[in-house]
Amino acid sequence: MDTKETIMKPSLINLLIFLILMTYAGATFSSVMPDYLKNHIGIEGDVRGALEIPRELPGFLLVFITGIIVSMRRHNAFGGVFLIGIAAFIGLAFLVKTLPVFVIFMVLWSTSTHAFMPLRDAVAIDLAGVERRGWILGRIGAFRSGGLILGTAAVWLLMEHFQADFRAIWIFAAGIMLLGA
Asked: Are 121 and 141 in contact (CB under 8 A)?
């Protein structure tokens, strides 16, 4: 398969768009979460460390999540993953007042990101065929890095220059996810 043909595949372009949107929103969450916990809910670092257990629960359950994903059509699977992410950010923006409620939406967001990982990789390998796996995975890594940079920069711009509050950041991240749904 010629590199030019691979680049022009609409499926690859869609995957890269989904990837950059997901990592953009993920960087937004990661950039804001520590301050959100401290300043909005009043959580100190010792409790924050304990939050890693529920945050990684979807990773532990990934075999079951993947089982659900493989039963879906590719487009529906991506849409479902993005809708879960949107629900998480909307919940964070409007419903969180206490730590237990935060944990619910944090786990929901984590479910979205953990479900995205095997979906992203499976689609990438499928698009690559046998000869182009490294080529595709390299592009996946590059676009992932781009999304991380864009998401982190967006948080800085919104908070530093527009004095956005946490609710505005979560709504912004939901909007980014909506582009992928």
From this structure: no
pTM of the model: 0.89
Distance of CA 74 to the CA centre of its chain: 17
Tens digits of residue pLDDT in 93-127: 999 999 999 999 999 999 999 999 999 988 888 88
Unique residue bearing structure tokens 């990773």 = 59
| Residue type present at position 114 | H
**Both tokens of residue 70?**
């493989």
**Greatest pairwise CA separation for the chain in angstroms:** 55
Give residue 151's identity as a one-letter amino acid code: G
Q: What's the rounded Cα separation, in Å, for the pair 85 and 97? A: 19
Q: Please, where are the H alpha helices in 37-130?
A: 45-50, 52-55, 57-60, 62-70, 74-94, 99-128
